[in-house]
Every structure is written in C-alpha cells, then in structure tokens.
Amino acid sequence: MNAQNSRLDPPPEMPRDIRLGLTKAKDVAFPLRWGLIGAGNICRQWAEVLKACEGATLSAVASRSIEKARDFARQHGIAQFYNDYAELVNSADVDVVYVGTPDRLHKEHCLLALNAGKHVLCEKDIAQSVVDAEEMYAAAKTNNVMLQDGVWTRFFPAVEHARMLLESGAIGDVVTVQSDLNPLYTSQAVTLGFGADKPPLKVTAFGNLPTEGGGAGCALMDFGDNKYAILTFVEFGSEFREVTEIIGTHGRLTLEDPGHCPTILTVRTPSTVPYRYLHSNAPSPSQRFEYPIPDIVRMPDAYPNQQGFLYQAEAIHRCIAAGLDQCPQFTMQESLHTLSLLTQINAAKKRAM
Length: 353
Description:
Layout: H1 16-19, E1 32-37, H2 41-50, E2 56-62, H3 66-76, E3 80-82, H4 85-89, E4 96-99, H5 106-114, E5 119-123, H6 130-142, E6 147-150, H7 157-167, E7 174-181, H8 183-194, E8 202-207, E9 217-222, E10 228-233, E11 244-248, E12 252-255, E13 264-268, H9 275-278, E14 287-290, H10 309-321, H11 332-352
Parallel strand pairs: 1-2, 1-4, 2-3, 4-5, 5-6, 7-10
Antiparallel strand pairs: 7-11, 8-9, 9-10, 11-12, 12-13, 13-14
C-alpha cells in the first residue's frame, strides 16, 4: 500500500527540508548550473539524473583527459569541457559543482570549488578523515556556500518516512541497529538510528577493512545501556541480503532490500511486545509502505535504484534556493559523526589483526 495520512498532516515521506518548513516544494525548479568534476561512471549517472531535475542545467564537465571530457560533453549535451579543474570551478557559468573523483581526491577538489565560491555536492566518502572533512566544511562556511555530503540514502522517501517515525517515538527507545552492505552505508544507518551526538563506547571489528578489496567483515558497536549496532560488510561476490533494521522498545522499522536505496519500508508497532512470544508465535502486525523510483529518469546500466539520485538533486535545488548551507537529511554533524564511526571501525580492525 502507499503511505497515507490525514489531510491536516504532511505525508510521512515528505522530504525533511519541506516538512521542517525550511524550503518550498516548488523550488525544485530553482535554476542552478552544474559543473561535474570527473567523467567516470558515477558522473555519467549524475548527468542522467540532472537532466530530469527541473531547475538543473548541465553546464560544464572536467576530466584529466581533454578527450574524455569532450566525449562526455558531447554525449550529454554539455557546452563546456575542460582538462583543468580550476577552469571549471572559476567558470561564471557554474553555480554548483558535483565532485565525482576518487575519494583520495575529494578534499583537494572540494576545496578548489568551495574557495572559488561554488556550492559543492561531494560523492561519498566525503573525505578520508574527520580532520579533512572539518577543514572542508570550514571552507564552505568561510565562502558562504553549501558543502553537501553525497549520502543519497537519506533522501529516499522510505528513509524520510522512517526518520519521521523515529522522531515521533513510534518505535520507542532505539536499542539495536542492524545493517548490511559496507562500512559507509551501515555507519550512516547507525547515525540514523542512534543520532549524531552519542559516540559508541566500544567498537569491535573483524574481517575486511573498508579500504580492502573483497572478503566479508563485521563490526559491533556498544553504545552502553544494552544498546548496540550490528553491522555486516557483505562480500559482493555472493548472493547477499541487504536490509537495515532499527529496533526499538515498542517496534521495529525495516528498510527492505536494497537497504541503502530502499523503496519499501515495513513498520511493526504491535500493541504488545514481544508479540510472537505473547501470541503463540503469530507474526507481528505490520504495515508495508512502497515508494517506487521516479520513472522520469532514463539511466542505462544503472545499479539498483540509482535513479533515486534525483531525490538528492531536487533537495539541493530547494535548499540552495532557501539559502541553506546543508540539507537537513544529512547534516554536517551527521556527516562528521558517520566519518568518525568509519575511522573507529578501521582502528578496531587493525587492533584485531
């Protein structure tokens, strides 16, 4: 079923920026000229999404290879192309820059754009350390522009709905977060469930590091008071189930497979818990909310639900139109906290070796 609510209340999947009264829905049409730093697959996907974003214009692309930049520009109808990133960020025809280069270059390329007075959406992971990210956010503040961490998960309607339920106390006090995929996506799920102001007391990790190729891994985070996060880093060469569950004292939220870009939220808030043990093993009553991916995005060879980049792109247009320096779906505080969790996972794994 589709999510329903009373006429007086906003729909539960409403984007957080609109729900909080920070932006206006119509400002998806706010005009922004985009420049892309990078001409690889992730930038190709963003180019396809931006074509479906009402206010977006694809203005420029830059790559280390002028031939690659030219081919990319021709493929996507982009007027300007460069093999010098500084030329792109200093172009008068660019308002916002998407940084889609490898993680190790994010700090360099973000600072280049921010110090040129451009808004920036940076692909995850935003930086390789908390210190680097703090420097990047400071540059954004100094230049009075947006720096947005590209954790697109937070912009999906199913996740927006889940967050609204968490904030309303629908499942009570969160006691456990369970999430599968990789350290970045699972760590942001921890931040979603437990918030960004409470670090874990202890982190234990086994198996592969985030920086290692192949192999499975896991991490356990102890938040005290019998509250835990259990993270599974799956092996991509396997048939894995990817789900995020946030479990509270009064219910459970399940972001169904694929949990990092979900279109289905299952909500279980029974009148009594634990329901199965009190009702002869009968399944807990549940509600299933489906949010299909936008069909206006045409993206060949997409990974699961990558058309959903559109949710983040539209939020950036609304937030910049409103003069915001971040999207409330994934704030600077949440970005830094998630990056801190990643650092702790790496450190825990090294201790275990």
